[in-house]
Design goal:
heterodimer; A: mainly alpha; B: Rossmann fold; 2 domains; six-stranded mixed sheet; four-stranded antiparallel sheet; globular
Chain lengths: ~270, ~250
């Protein structure tokens, strides 16, 4: 390995070595997604039971409602874990007061971002795959029954998570470690507009406009369409990809601007102290 | 060609002038000391030399590379150590060194790590987490990290701060030997006057971001009529004039 690939691997190795030695850290990656799946799985089972038992209710409608809920939980975890995986890996450098060393090495900022993206994918898979397994074993819900399109859903939600994470890291560069709470909270704040558990149409008009510019809302509309009708909504997927492109470009510009501003202020050396 | 060439280097934070028009050069294979009290601008200068901080004005060339446009080419040939920047505490010494070997693209990394561990007496510590080491051991690991890429320019910010006299002396001896053997150029910021006197061929005396005097330790001692650098430092800190300046004024 040479050049950029080796430097990116160097930073990936730094994080992987950390997880290799610490099983609680590894367990923590899967803890919340699995816990969420357990809670929402039982909730879905309860709701599905009520629907099936209601006058005029059918087992099929109940199964669809449960599947929409569980699919929403699992796919939303993809976005959440991707965003946190990126932002928290960056925070690790601040917590260990190592940023100064990293930024005086020949590592380019885009290589740092590439390494953080790599860690984001690894952390997301370590969290979401066990939750997918739990959904299958406990509730007989197979996310992959949606077909190969599920890969596009994953890709879109990861892209959105990364855009948010880049913006969060930019804010940390701007405001220092004091802004670290954003690494956990920002995407949760977007949940009402992401239409994870309900269609965009149930939102009031003004909120529908906000939901329209959130890429995840189009993914979840597409997921529900695939579940209910078996159709792939390419229009929704196209919108999600288009919006993600805009979000990623915007977040990248913000990151580049804040990185340069941090170099102007000397924040890269003092951050974490 | 000088290893480091600095012209008109200035850093302003709002109304505060942290570094005010520094001009200096460091010849290859020599050690330059930056000496000054707290807030004199030593760390700010080092941060600008490393590209961590963008200067308000002026230019920096390291190994012929303009740091404003080609800093990554220079950074691959430089390294840095400071007690105020840590290595990840939960990674072992070997893992930390491996990370930086990758970041600096060191060929035959494992051999280099073994070699440095032997030189810096770290062999028995390679499997230990960096956070469990004593201050002296951490300093040696930080030095190993700073030398992983066989830097041609080494920037050291207070390399012996918080070390006991014996360990501090060991580090100074080691640096002296390393510079002589490798031909590395060293820029050293320190509060330790004995260290500066022993290691540096040239010294810049900084005060409020400006160079107030410069020369070899022997020249400075002669100019101020003092026995050691600590007295020279106090003369400058307390605005006492050098013997040469006073003599020159009396003569004019």
């Amino acid at each position: 390995m040479k050049g950029p690939a080796r430097r990116i691997w160097g930073l990936l190795y730094r994080h992987l070595a950390l997880y290799r030695r610490s099983w609680p850290r590894l367990l923590e990656l899967a803890y919340w997604p699995v816990l969420q799946m357990c809670i929402w799985g039982f909730t879905a089972r309860f709701i599905a039971g009520r629907i099936a038992d209601a006058p005029g209710g059918s087992a099929h409608a109940a199964a669809l409602a449960a599947a929409a809920l569980l699919g929403g939980v699992l796919l939303w975890e993809v976005a959440l874990r991707s965003q946190m995986g990126f932002a928290i890996s960056f925070m690790e450098e601040i917590w260990s007061r190592n940023l100064g060393h990293v930024f005086v090495s020949p590592l380019r900022p885009w290589e740092l971002v590439a390494a953080l993206l790599g860690m984001s994918v690894i952390r997301m898979l370590a969290g979401v795959l066990p939750a997918i397994g739990v959904a299958y074993l406990l509730y007989a819900f197979n996310l992959f029954m949606l077909g190969p399109v599920v890969v596009l859903f994953f890709a879109n939600l990861m892209l959105m998570g990364w855009a948010v994470a880049l913006a969060v890291v930019s804010l940390i560069l701007r405001h220092g470690a004091g802004a670290e709470a954003l690494a956990w909270s920002v995407l949760f704040g977007l949940t009402p507009f992401a239409a994870v558990f309900y269609p965009v149409s149930v939102l009031p008009g003004a909120l529908q406009a906000i939901a329209f510019v959130v890429p995840a809302s189009h993914v979840f509309e597409g997921m529900r369409a695939a579940l209910l009708t078996g159709m792939i909504r390419w229009d929704q997927l196209g919108l999600a990809f288009g919006l993600n492109l805009i979000w990623i470009v915007g977040a990248s510009l913000l990151f580049a601007q804040q990185f340069r501003a941090a170099r102007r202020r000397g924040a890269l050396l003092s951050m974490g102290e | 060609m000088n290893a480091i060439q600095v012209e008109g280097l200035t850093k302003r934070y709002g109304a505060t002038l942290a570094v005010d028009g520094l001009d200096f050069a460091v010849a290859p294979g020599t050690t330059l000391g930056l000496l000054g009290g707290n807030g004199a601008g030593k760390t700010t200068t080092i941060a600008m030399l490393l590209g961590l901080l963008i200067p308000t004005a002026g230019s920096i060339r390291v190994l012929g590379h303009d740091m404003a446009r080609e800093r990554f080419a220079a950074l691959a040939r430089m390294n840095f150590s400071s007690p105020y920047v840590s290595l990840p505490a939960r990674l072992t010494v070997a893992e930390n060194l491996r990370v930086y070997a990758h970041l600096y693209g060191v060929p035959r990394a494992e051999r280099r790590i073994t070699e440095l561990a032997a030189e810096l007496d770290l062999t028995g510590l390679l499997a230990r987490p960096a956070g469990q080491l004593s201050a002296g051991q951490k300093t040696r690991v930080a030095l190993a990290k700073a030398l992983i890429n066989r830097p041609e320019v080494l920037l050291l910010d207070e390399p012996t701060a918080s070390l006991d006299p014996d360990t501090g002396d060991w580090v100074r001896s080691w640096l002296e030997r390393y510079r002589a053997d490798s031909g590395c150029t060293i820029l050293l910021a320190s509060h330790n006057m004995a260290e500066v006197e022993r290691l540096c061929s040239q010294v810049l005396m900084l005060k409020q971001g400006r160079i107030v005097d410069r020369g070899s330790p022997a020249e400075l001692l002669g100019r101020y009529g003092r026995e050691d650098m600590e007295e020279v430092f106090l003369d400058i800190a307390r605005n006492r004039r050098s013997a040469t300046a006073t003599h020159a004024e009396a003569g004019s």
